[in-house]
């Protein structure tokens, strides 16, 4: 029996989330709907200018780990924080979600990463991220026992920015594959795809990665096409299992043998899209590691995403497990 269902590797970021209007984004030079990398001075400036906010453990893979745990799965996380106040917040918060997090904190500079997330009235989130201690994650932080014991290791494309993290991911993937496990990634962001298109394709085509998550913009960016069908055709050839989320149009899971279309879960009130894709991946991977069909995995992912976007922030205030039971999915 595996010790963990999903091991997530990602940037350990404290999310600081506040509402704003579109004019605030324009006035502060923030690209709407994107993840903007910033320096610590700009993070302090934006923090000073933002309105009332909530602070929570975040980061893409951290959100996914919390989602897996929320369904009742066994989740672990590798990520680097500093030995400071925000690091304490992150460590306590993600462990409180039921996620095993034992990466040794960085002693001293740089400080723990933080992302100033501004949510506009249309529910779109614009992230401004100072990576801080995240860039110090390296191969020495790989816990080999966890890497070998997790059914699926999942990492975020965002983690391809800090160079030493690549070494940590490749080391973890090698340990996982030697142990007969699977490796998964999310493409994270169209801008991230633009930066690392060749490397991401190589990860898929070399078999370093078995399962890939993307939204439709990311997968079309990956293959530099305006046609989703063209992108899906290439996607199914390059990875063993590809999952594409399409917001209100649901999602699609593709393998070389089949295409599974999953309907979205109706949403009454769109509040904040922060973490929706991360929670989708959490639900999908929970189902996958329990041996469920691709259709059921997609339904679990859609349920988690739909609940996420009807509140502020990615930490759900209701039980994912109970919601799935009520929906007849568990």
Question: If you had to describe this structure to a student in words, what would you say it looks like?
Answer:
This protein is of the alpha/beta class. Helices cover 40% and strands 22% of the residues. It has twelve helices and 14 strands. The strands form two sheets. It has a nine-stranded mixed sheet with strand order 6-5-1-9-10-11-12-13-14. It has a five-stranded mixed sheet with strand order 3-8-7-2-4. Strand 10 (182-186), helix 7 (190-205) and strand 11 form a beta-alpha-beta unit.
**Rg from alpha-carbon coordinates:** 18 Å
Distance between the termini: 20 Å
Q: Beta-sheet strand percentage?
A: 15-25%
Q: Strand count, sense and closure of the main sheet?
A: 9 strands, mixed
Helices, by number, come to 12
Fold topology:
Elements: E1 4-9, E2 13-19, H1 22-27, E3 35-37, H2 40-49, E4 53-58, H3 60-70, E5 75-78, H4 85-96, E6 99-101, E7 113-119, E8 125-130, H5 144-149, E9 150-156, H6 163-178, E10 182-186, H7 190-205, E11 211-215, H8 216-222, H9 228-238, E12 241-245, E13 251-254, E14 259-262, H10 276-289, H11 294-308, H12 320-326
Parallel strand pairs: 1-5, 1-9, 2-7, 3-8, 5-6, 9-10, 10-11, 11-12
Antiparallel strand pairs: 2-4, 7-8, 12-13, 13-14
Helix pairs in contact: 3-10, 7-8, 8-9, 10-11
Keywords:
22% strand; 5-stranded mixed sheet; 330 residues; 9-stranded mixed sheet; 12 helices; alpha/beta
Summed up, what is this model?
With 330 residues, the chain is of the alpha/beta class. 40% of the residues lie in helices and 22% in strands.
């Amino acid at each position: 029996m595996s010790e963990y269902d999903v091991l997530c590797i990602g940037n350990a970021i404290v999310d600081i989330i506040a509402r704003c209007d579109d004019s605030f984004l324009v006035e502060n030079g923030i690209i709407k709907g994107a993840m903007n990398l910033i320096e610590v001075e700009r993070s302090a400036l934006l923090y000073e200018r933002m309105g009332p906010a909530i602070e929570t453990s975040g980061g893409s893979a951290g959100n996914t780990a919390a989602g897996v745990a929320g369904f009742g799965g066994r989740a672990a996380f590798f990520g680097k924080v500093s030995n400071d106040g925000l690091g304490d917040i992150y460590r306590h918060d993600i462990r409180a979600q039921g996620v095993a997090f034992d990466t040794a904190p960085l002693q001293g500079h740089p400080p723990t990463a933080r992302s100033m997330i501004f949510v506009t009235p249309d529910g779109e989130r614009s992230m401004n991220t100072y990576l801080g201690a995240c860039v110090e994650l390296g191969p020495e932080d790989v816990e080999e026992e966890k890497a070998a014991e997790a059914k699926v290791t999942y990492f975020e494309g965002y983690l391809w920015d800090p160079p030493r993290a690549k070494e940590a991911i490749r080391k973890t993937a090698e340990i996982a594959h030697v142990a007969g496990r699977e490796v998964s990634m999310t493409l994270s962001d169209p801008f991230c795809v633009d930066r690392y298109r060749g490397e991401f394709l190589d990860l898929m085509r070399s078999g370093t990665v078995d399962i890939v998550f993307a939204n439709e913009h990311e997968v079309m960016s990956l293959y530099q096409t305006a046609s989703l069908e063209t992108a899906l055709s290439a996607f199914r050839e390059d990875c063993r299992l590809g999952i594409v989320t399409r917001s209100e149009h649901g999602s699609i899971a593709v393998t070389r043998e089949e295409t599974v279309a999953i309907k979205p879960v109706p949403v009454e009130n769109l509040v904040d899209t922060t973490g929706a894709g991360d929670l989708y991946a959490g639900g999908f991977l929970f189902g996958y590691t329990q041996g469920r069909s691709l259709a059921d995995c997609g339904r679990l992912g859609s349920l988690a995403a739909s609940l996420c976007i009807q509140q502020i922030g990615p930490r759900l205030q209701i039980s994912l497990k109970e919601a799935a039971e009520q929906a007849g999915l568990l």
